[in-house]
């Protein structure tokens, strides 16, 4: 009996979440009412209040769920390993699978219709796992590793955001390969483009 109740709860909550996503395609979050959410989900207000106190609780649960899944996807390639391995031996496609699976949600959450610092929460989630699980080996003792980790995390976030912005133009395999290439790339020298400066 409990299992059927759990399924019913899951189904009901999912309907409210999908309804909110649908409405967010057209309206800002602050302009959406609970009446509109329940109408879109084909439930009544009483049912909504059984599961959520306010529409903010609904939105926060959606965000927490997707960020938890993002963290799990980030860790999936190595969470069951019994010894240290180089990142080049692993595949990061699980992370990009996650973004493809939730692409509509990410496009909406990163749009002007949702003003809840979603990008900051994405960064903090990835930063936490990066610092906890990834170790960079370098001969440059002068590097500030805290700044270096931030540099790497924001770089990967930028890559992901560009992928989302361009409507997931590249395949997940290509993106996974690029993350590995970028994470292990070492720049020998950096030059100013002399000719471009003097001809612009």
In a few lines, what is going on in this structure?
The chain has 200 residues and is an all-alpha fold. The chain contains ten helices and no strands.
Following the backbone from N to C, one meets helices and strands in this order, namely HHHHHHHHHH
Mean of residue pLDDT?
A: 84
Total beta-strand segments = 0
- What's the number of domains? 2
User: What proportion strand?
Assistant: under 5%
Oligomeric state of the chains in view: single chain
Helix content: 55-70%
**Separation of termini?**
73 Å
Query: Biggest sheet, in brief?
Result: none
Radius of gyration: 21 Å
The coarse silhouette is elongated
Structural class: mainly alpha
Low-confidence stretches: none
Written overview of the protein:
This protein is mainly alpha-helical and 200 residues long. The protein folds into 2 domains: 52 residues, Orthogonal Bundle (Arc Repressor Mutant, subunit A), CATH 1.10.10; 146 residues. It is 65% helix and 0% strand. The chain starts with a helix and ends with a helix. The mean pLDDT is 84. GO terms for molecular function: DNA binding. InterPro entries: Homeodomain-like_sf, HTH-type_Tx_Regulator, HTH_TetR, TetR_C_Firmicutes. Keywords: DNA-binding, Repressor.
């Amino acid at each position: 009996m409990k299992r059927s109740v759990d399924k019913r709860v899951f189904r009901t909550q999912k309907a409210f979440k999908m309804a909110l996503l649908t409405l967010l395609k057209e309206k800002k979050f602050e302009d959406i009412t609970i009446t509109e959410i329940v109408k879109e989900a084909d439930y009544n207000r009483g049912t909504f209040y059984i599961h959520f106190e306010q529409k903010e609780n609904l939105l926060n649960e959606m965000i927490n769920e997707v960020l938890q899944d993002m963290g799990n996807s980030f860790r999936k390639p190595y969470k069951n390993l019994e010894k240290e391995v180089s990142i080049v031996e692993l595949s990061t496609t699980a992370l990009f699978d996650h973004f493809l699976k939730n692409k509509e949600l990410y496009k909406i959450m990163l749009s002007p219709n949702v003003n809840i610092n979603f990008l900051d929460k994405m960064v903090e989630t990835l930063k936490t796992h990066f610092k906890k699980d990834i170790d960079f080996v370098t001969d440059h003792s002068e590097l500030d590793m805290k700044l270096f980790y931030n540099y790497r995390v924001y770089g990967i976030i930028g890559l992901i955001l560009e992928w989302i912005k361009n409507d997931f133009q590249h395949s997940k395999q290509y993106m996974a390969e690029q993350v590995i290439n970028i994470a292990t790339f070492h720049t020998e020298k950096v030059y100013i483009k002399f000719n471009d400066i003097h001809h612009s």
